[in-house]
């Protein structure tokens, strides 16, 4: 198990408290995206094709910490864009840790060796390095050769300096169970502290839509991988019931409010994957989103979704309600044989509504009225020049 005991206890105590307070909907992990700019241009990314004025915008330290305070979550995952391109990232991390929260900093690691001295190991802090598979698979996924080798070098350097280091792997439709299992063996041999997995999901903005998995394929793929991992000592960073869900053994509805997303547009509605409008505050997001309109079976855009940001919270809440079931999966691992759990009926779902560009147009209009700022140093999206410029 790749989730530290203190983190499990912190999250467990938080969830129990929410139940005792009778809260029907509450957040678990804040997805904080302080910028969209990146020094890669991955085919499966829905962020880096925004216009440059939007890619040059940042959330300030104060805005990031206010988002943490508004939600009260026990865990903050910082993503992007590439968070290490944000000059004030060390202050953001320190401020969140000072609030007693767990911080997971997601990075492609291209700038990690250069920036790492600005950070100190902390029991609540994890570097979460993006690695989608072995050298060829990862370099294909990020659309650039050499990235795997640089990420692995940075990963080893961070481990040698005493940091907790995880990898997160998004699996696409070309993933092969045998090859993924070998990759998990490799990163386990490197001494990483956790492997976090999620199936790729067709972001409506992602430029390359054909690489994402559908639900049946997802379940078969994960069964194939997990069957090969029995007894190998892989330290999985997802909850045991989420892994069991990926392997087709749990029928979960998503919990989109479980991982609310704050980025430069505001609070994303309804979840990290879909951008159907933005709220100005977390309270407004929770109170004015029509949550019943979303989720598998309710909305066409959700039909294939099994991603961690939608379903990990469902699994964690189920673990608290059914601790013996969770314990059994923790000890034995996900079930990889036998009939799968029933699938959710899609016959009543409403059709997709393509509304994603309105907030872009609105933000561009706001930027046009802002006083002129000094140009931001770094790359345009679409290659590596940001690395050189930084
Ligand atoms: S199923 Fe849930 S988490 Fe997935 S895209 Fe739909 S609302 Fe978001």
From TrEMBL:
* Superkingdom, natural source: Bacteria
- Residue spans crossing the bilayer: none
- Cofactor entry: [4Fe-4S] cluster
The segments labelled Disordered in the record are 369-390
GO molecular function terms noted in the UniProt entry: catalytic activity; iron-sulfur cluster binding; metal ion binding
Looking up InterPro entries in the UniProt record yields: Aldolase_TIM (IPR013785), DUF3463 (IPR022563), Hopanoid_synth-assoc_rSAM_HpnH (IPR017833), Radical_SAM_PqqE_MftC-like (IPR050377), rSAM (IPR007197), rSAM_sf (IPR058240)
The cross-references to PROSITE patterns, in alphabetical order and at most eight, read: RADICAL_SAM
Record key words, sorted? Iron, Iron-sulfur, Metal-binding, S-adenosyl-L-methionine
Q: Where is the Radical SAM core domain?
A: 20-228
Its name, as the record gives it, is: Hopanoid biosynthesis associated radical SAM protein HpnH
Species annotation: Belnapia rosea
């Amino acid at each position: 198990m790749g989730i530290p005991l203190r983190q499990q206890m912190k999250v467990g105590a938080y969830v129990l408290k929410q139940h005792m307070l009778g809260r029907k909907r509450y957040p678990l992990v804040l997805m904080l995206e302080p910028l969209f700019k990146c020094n890669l241009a991955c085919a499966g990314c829905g962020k880096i094709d925004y216009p440059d004025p939007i890619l040059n915008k940042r959330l300030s330290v104060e805005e990031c910490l206010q988002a943490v305070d508004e939600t009260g979550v026990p865990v903050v995952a910082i993503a992007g864009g590439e968070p290490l391109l944000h000059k004030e990232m060390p202050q953001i991390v320190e401020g969140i840790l000072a609030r007693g929260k767990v911080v997971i900093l997601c990075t492609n690691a291209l700038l990690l060796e250069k920036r790492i001295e600005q950070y100190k190991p902390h029991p609540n802090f994890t570097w979460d390095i993006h690695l989608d598979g072995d050298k060829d698979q990862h370099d294909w996924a990020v659309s650039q050769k050499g990235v795997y080798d640089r990420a692995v070098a940075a990963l080893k350097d961070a481990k040698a300096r005493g940091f907790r280091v995880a990898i997160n792997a998004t699996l696409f439709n070309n993933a092969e169970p045998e090859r993924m299992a070998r990759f998990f063996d490799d990163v386990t041999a490197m001494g990483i502290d956790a492997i976090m997995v999620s199936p790729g999901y067709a972001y409506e903005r992602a430029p390359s839509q054909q690489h994402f998995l559908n639900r049946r394929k997802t379940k078969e793929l994960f069964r194939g991988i997990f069957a090969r991992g029995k007894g190998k000592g892989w330290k999985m960073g997802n909850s045991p019931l989420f892994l069991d869900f990926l392997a087709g053994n749990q029928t979960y509805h998503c919990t989109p409010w479980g991982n609310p997303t704050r980025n430069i547009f505001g609070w994303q509605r309804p979840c990290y994957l879909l951008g159907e409008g933005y709220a100005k505050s977390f309270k407004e997001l929770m109170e004015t989103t029509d949550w019943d309109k979303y989720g598998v079976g309710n909305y066409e855009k959700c039909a294939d979704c099994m991603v961690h940001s939608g379903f990990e919270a469902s699994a964690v809440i189920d673990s608290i309600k059914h601790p013996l079931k969770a314990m059994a999966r923790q000890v034995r691992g996900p079930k990889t044989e036998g009939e799968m759990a029933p699938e959710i009926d899609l016959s009543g779902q409403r059709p997709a509504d393509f509304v994603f560009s309105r907030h872009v147009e609105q933000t561009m209009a706001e930027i046009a009225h802002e006083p002129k700022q000094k140009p931001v140093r770094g790359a345009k999206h679409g290659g590596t020049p940001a690395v050189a410029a930084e």
